[in-house]
Amino acid sequence: RRLLFTSLRALMPRRTKTPALKRLPPCHNYYFIVGWFFFLVVLIVALIYLAIDAVMGGPLYLYHTDNNNDGDSSNNNSPIIEHLVPLKKNGAKNYNDAALYPDFLYEPISSPDLVTPHAVQPARVVEFYAPWCPHCKHFAPQYKKLAAEIQTNHPEIKFYAVSCVAHHDLCKAQKVSSYPTMKYFRKGSYNFTIGLKKNANSILKELGYDADNGGDKGSSSGSNPHNKQDKEIARVIPFQRHDVHDAWSDAALSFEFALKNNIYMENGPLSAAKSDALREWLALLSKSLPAQMKRTHILVDALLNYFDEATRGQTYMNQLVRRHVKEMPSWSWQTCTYGENDMGYTCGLWQLFHVMSVGVVEYNRHNIDAPIATGHASETLRNYIDHFFQCDVCRMNFLSQYDSCAFDGCHRLSERPSLSEQEWREFPLWLWETHNDVNVRLLGERLEQNKLDKPNQWESQQARWPNLFTCPNCWREDHSWDESDVFDHLHSLYWSGDPSYIKIQSNDIGSAVVGGASSRGIGLRWKISGIIFVVVAVLMWLSSSKNGRRDSGKRKK
């Protein structure tokens, strides 16, 4: 005990030199122990708080902000009724019934012992979405506005939302293959029609109503709901710092998230076309990912070695993954989420694509006898997005660009293996141009959604990465690109690892994970915990100094 107290006291700064500690004064001993006890309790509570937040892994819903659900699927602050995951407080059977068979989608089973008949379901609209889907996020404010507008004249019509991240099995049972998916049910019916309707008249017609009675009135409030926010909206999102380890980490995270949520959208084994697309994608990743992404390589190798098992169903896929790596403690992306972790999946997916594209060049440099054809790599990427990326608008935009040979892809990307590094570089450069086109288009969509002016030429240029300030050598005086310097910049960001500022606003496809360190942004909770830590440490120092002066005074007397 004396040795422990001596060691702890030696760590505390003292203003006066004291002789070797023979006996701690009773009063000093008491305050010392209480102070350190309080300090350790605060530190432990802060760490537990951060751990719980990490395990939560980000939001599961767009229309309901509280992840601690009480089983009530309503949200009084919104016209949208979010279907939540209920607590298992009423037994497994009731839990499964509530989670997998909600009464707005499935007709309740009748029983001869039933005294009160089941209520007739009203006309209703159900949106199936994923929180990470950029177009689902863009559509969410419009869906709320349409619901409020229609319910002004037809309050009996209900509007529901189902998160396919929180309710993956339910979405598979409903055969939801893209996001957002809208289903329209007429009163008392469980038959539905599908389609993304963006005005009140169209929705009312689908529900069997007279569209002229409470149709599309535009902005019924008579004012722009975004006016109060216009001054707070940044026209061009600022750059965010990250290095190559962050890119690898987020890429690995999105790869594993896709295995869990985006490969199987229906029950049962994968179709032959999907199996072929997945096998080709895994084979490409096994060759093109850096060795530092150890966890991802373990998963890729396991999936290829046990491919028949992996393609039998989601349960088999999950079991295979867990046999080879520990379960991911959280889904927390960092590099380009800007505080919105639900956007991390698409962000990390773009990171994965860029790492893979630069990796193709690296692989060919070291395997000159059997290089990867750039056309084969791009076609493999195209097929993966076609089959396993469920954001419908995002997927169609990418496929449309690829199939129409945008950015001269049909000539730049060859199906025949080449020995020219200049030809290999065309693949990452083509993907970079495609991503930049997405950035510019999303900038216009974001400004339009917030009722702001269209982007000017300077803003469009700043939406492309790397911009003039990040990579001056990448831009010529005539505002054209120097592709040789651009490739060097891509290589440093996704392979060699020089830290830099980049622009990856991946809202569209439109470190346990990697074998290296990761420079992470400091979140709000870490800042709060750090402040608490510093404040308590200062209080401890002041208390120790005060006691030291008291002891010194006693010795003088």
Please supply descriptive tags for the structure shown above:
557 residues; mainly alpha; five-stranded mixed sheet; two-stranded antiparallel sheet; 7 strands; 50% helix
Write the layout of secondary structure elements.
Blueprint: H1 2-11, H2 26-56, E1 80-83, H3 92-100, E2 124-129, H4 134-153, E3 158-163, H5 168-173, E4 181-185, E5 192-194, H6 200-206, E6 240-242, H7 244-261, H8 272-288, H9 294-305, H10 307-310, H11 314-324, H12 344-366, H13 374-388, H14 392-403, H15 409-412, H16 421-449, H17 457-462, H18 483-496, E7 500-502, H19 524-556
Parallel strand pairs: 1-3, 2-3
Antiparallel strand pairs: 2-4, 4-5, 6-7
Helix pairs in contact: 2-19, 7-12, 7-18, 8-9, 8-12, 8-13, 9-11, 12-16, 12-18, 13-16
Shape: globular
Mean pLDDT figure: 76
Based on secondary structure, the structural category is mainly alpha
Number of helices: 19
Helix-residue proportion: 40-55%
Question: What is the structure about, briefly put?
Answer:
The chain is mainly alpha-helical and 557 residues long.
Question: Could you please describe the fold and organization of this structure?
Answer:
With 557 residues, the chain is mainly alpha-helical. 50% of the residues lie in helices and 5% in strands. It contains 19 helices and 7 strands. The protein has helices at residues 2-11, 26-56, 92-100, 134-153, 168-173, 200-206, 244-261, 272-288, 294-305, 307-310, 314-324, 344-366, 374-388, 392-403, 409-412, 421-449, 457-462, 483-496, 524-556, and strands spanning 80-83, 124-129, 158-163, 181-185, 192-194, 240-242, 500-502. Strands 1-3-2-4-5 form a 5-stranded mixed beta sheet. The two termini are 29 Å apart.
